[in-house]
From TrEMBL:
SUPFAM superfamilies reported in the protein's UniProt record: ABC transporter transmembrane region, P-loop containing nucleoside triphosphate hydrolases
Domain ABC transmembrane type-1: start-end pairs: 197-475
Name assigned to this protein: ABC transporter, ATP-binding protein
Chief location category: membrane
Membrane topology, record value: Multi-pass membrane protein
Amino acid sequence: MIPSPELEKLAWPIDRLGEAVAALGYARGWADAAHGVQVAPHLGSDDPEAALEFELSRTAAHLRLEIEAVETDYAGIRAFLARCAPAVLRLPENLFLPVLERRGKTLHVLCADLKRRRLSLETVREALCRALDDELAADIDTLISAARVQGIRQARARAALLEELLADRRIRVGWLVRPACTTSLSRQASDYRVRGLLSTLFAAHTLAFLLWLGAWWLLGQGVFSGHLDIGWLQAWALLLLTLLPLRLLASGATGWFAIRAGALLKRRLLAGALRLDPDEIRHLGIGRLLGRILEAEVLEQMAVAGGSLGLTGLVELVMAFGILSLTQDSRPLLVLATWTLAGVGFAVYYLRHQRNWTETRLALTDILVEGMVGHRTRAVQESRERWNAREDHALTSYYQVSLARDRAALNLRAILPRGGLLVGIASLVPAFVAGGGSAVPLALSLGGVLAAYLAFRHLGEGLEQILGAWVAFEQIRPFWRAAAHSEVLGHPEVSGNKTDSDPERPIIEAHNLIYRHAGQSNPVLCGASLHIGADDRVLLEGSSGSGKSTLASLLSGQRLPEAGLCLIGGLDRASLGERAWRRHIALVPQFHENHIFMGSLAFNLLLGRNWPPSQKDIDEADALCRALGLGPLLERMPGGIFQLVGETGWQLSHGERERIYIARALLQGAKVVILDESVSSLDPQTLRDTMALLWKRAPALILVVHA
């Protein structure tokens, strides 16, 4: 039972969980009202928790939202609640509580009657921890009673004992909710509050510059009026001191903007990398891919720094135009406008050289990385005199391109501001020589020229970084665009479990599949058809290039056929959706297309399961590893199944990696497992044991081998 009857009335039941997520998304401005009707999580399966996670993720995807299951330890539950919003918390008795935001020590929640209420953090914490508290409640009460703790000290002692005994116990608290990467950039920016920070930054810079102008205007008025007394100087000093908090505000807004804009950028690029069509980057080498990834860091740093400088310079340039427009002499204004156009030319010239420099640098990175990867082959098959010939030529070219780019940057950094100052002062010479008038207009024009000098200096430095960021963005644009690719969600009323409705129907039905690679005139597959039913064991054998791997990728949904029809349980991909399709078919790609990610072995094994994993998931993964002959490996690793593996962790042999790939596919719980030449590194005995396990565990099996 939950501790508060009031909380029980406010929470949502499980049959309205989809509606709760929709209401939360609409309240935050992320989901449209038209998407309010959503399916409830389907629990009629052998694993209700997995079905709940899957259906909830599909519901969120239809709303253009993303959910992430989270857990925390008992000791950190308060800190989690303080930063969890927006989220859907899972209370005992299958009740759910959407959290909109936190203010102070209260949470603003969306109740089942669609009204907003405030609940204390402690009330929600007690509800989440009640199940664990009840496990030790009787023993702790007995201990406190025996110790004769009286009065208010009893509650404090009880809380302290629970905190000490349950500190490391994990609690699955619910799901974090955020807009999906396929939503508009404005909605994602509102989630990170980027626009508010940008407005604050602009306002702070503008107000600071106005105060700076006002301070010097005040001083000038005192000088030209001939009665500069202590009061004028005090007002001047006060205005300058007022600049300090505005500068601090602008600096703080810049820092927070950099953090949040960087987080938004990295999240979108990561989503794009995961959704990128492999055929789009298949022609790129590992070095060029690494270079493009590094460009994301360049984009983040240069865009923020350059944007801040550019914004400052733009404000100052507008103010300089305003100052010069107040004078009677139009020559400085025309000279400033002409020089601004010259600055545009400098920027275009620099952009061309920056692009050339970036392309040369990425090519150099590709050469160096490929050389390091193939160093052993080069050492034994190429003469020593030729080892560095290609690198030397690339470095020479890079040096020449860098010189040209630095000369172009000199135009923005030095010639633009200093040249602007010189031509501006030159435009004042006729008025100075003519004389005969008041000194105030001349002083005002000189002030405008000096303001323009500051503006050009900031604009030059800012444009250099902004243009560098733009060129970096051009390199990573495929990742950015891929993030906007819409996922095939399927129809909301179609559940992934409905493919089991007819046990006599084949799991996979393929009819007349046709596929040709990009740029190829002849199809690699033409009229391929097959039926795979439960308990089928299929051997797919063929020569290199015959289309075996292509057919496997079509069946698993990694590629789409040019023509033909592929069904799972009688449903096509558009009806079933990508997520449900992946639940039914697990593909183990060829060795060079499969990977061990940097992380724990458990993480690599349970990629196709819910994360964070339950103890049942961990136990099943451990048992399957031992059944595949990986028991000695688990015994050798200090952390066991939680040992860090990958390129920067525990090193695994090819045979160990292949068995981990197979275990990963089996743990996905799919109805069909496809092995694409995935047992080539196993010795005969291990191969026999692995195939026996696959024969036993895989509901249906397709084994692709090279003839």
